[in-house]
Design a protein that fits this description.
- By secondary structure, the chain is mostly helical.
- Helices cover about 65% and strands about 10% of the residues.
- The chain has a three-stranded antiparallel β-sheet.
- Helix 1 crosses helix 4, helix 2 crosses helix 3 and helix 6 packs antiparallel against helix 7.
- It is elongated and about 60 Å long.
- The two termini are about 40 Å apart.
Length: about 170
């Protein structure tokens, strides 16, 4: 579902070919989704088969293979809105680190300190990256929403990490 909503969401904004979709995922969404390059093409193929997306043309640069340009169809827009509703209606909110925190007490004091140090460093790096992205001034408001959303969560987690005593 995550890959479908990502691809359809990107196609809601503009027609794209597969590599452009991957490039936008890497540039804009790498902190939010882990989508492998090959799975993008599989998901696009599935979207075409389901009638959500169609090929609307091709592009060819000298020496490179032909690239198919994709457009979202009305059925794809409907499916995209359904996926969005499912995400917004979900009552279960968690972050991947939650599962590791559930077993935090099973770690030795040294492992706990290492985890806290590494997590703190990672969060600071991500916050610096977010600051840089915001300073570049992304034109897409939806991109700003996801960046500032992550920024607030990371700042809250960083503050929370400071309260942990070993």
């Amino acid at each position: 579902m995550k890959i479908d909503i990502t691809i359809l969401g990107l196609l809601m904004n503009e027609n794209l070919y597969g590599y452009e979709i991957k490039k936008k995922i890497v540039e804009q969404l790498e902190d939010y989704v882990d989508i492998k390059f090959g799975s993008i093409y599989y998901a696009i193929k599935k979207s075409v088969e389901n009638g959500w997306v169609k090929r609307v043309g091709t592009e060819k640069e000298s020496g490179n293979p032909e690239r198919y340009v994709y457009e979202i169809l009305p059925a794809g827009k409907k499916h995209y809105k359904k996926l969005l509703k499912q995400y917004f209606d979900a009552n279960f909110i968690h972050f991947d680190v939650d599962i590791a925190l559930m077993f935090f007490e099973n770690l030795s004091d040294e492992q706990k300190e290492q985890f806290l140090d590494e997590r703190t460093s990672l969060i600071k790096e991500k916050l610096d990256s977010i600051k840089e992205k915001l300073e570049k001034g992304a034109d897409d408001n939806s991109y700003k929403y996801i960046i500032t959303y992550l920024e607030h969560h990371l700042k809250a987690e960083l503050n929370w990490l400071k309260t942990i005593k070993i």
